[in-house]
Amino acid sequence: xxxxxxxxxxxxxxxxxxxxxxxxxxxxxxxxxxxxxxxxxxxxxxxxxxxxxxxxxxxxxxxxxxxxxxxxxxxxxxxxxxxxxxxxxxxxxxxxxxxxxxxxxxxxxxxxxxxxxxxxxxxxxxxxxxxxxxxxxxxx
Length: 140
What we know:
There is one protein chain. The chain is an alpha+beta fold. It is built from three helices and six strands. A hairpin with a 2-residue loop joins strand 1 and strand 2 (about 45-50).
């Protein structure tokens, strides 16, 4: 009985239609060729660049800062670009270092402009600054 169930399971797997799991690409993406590819890796730095026939391009360079110290980190600069299926071109430039990942691109959302502080908050802050809380005696 166990072998019958195992054989039945194998037949079900073999007969399953998994074509929906395969990525359906346009011909340009599926047949893309690498036009340019460069890479240079050293002990304390690296850089790479590539470009494909379907318009994808990327480059990045990184360098080790403060080698051998407690605050050792990699500082990275790079960019990439591609064309969306609707024909829109996307480009992204970035820096990643001790200040975090900092991307820049026209398609990225931007934060809203800072709002002015309401008058009642400013008055409250002025009152607090002019009337500090008296120091409380410490109880042990």
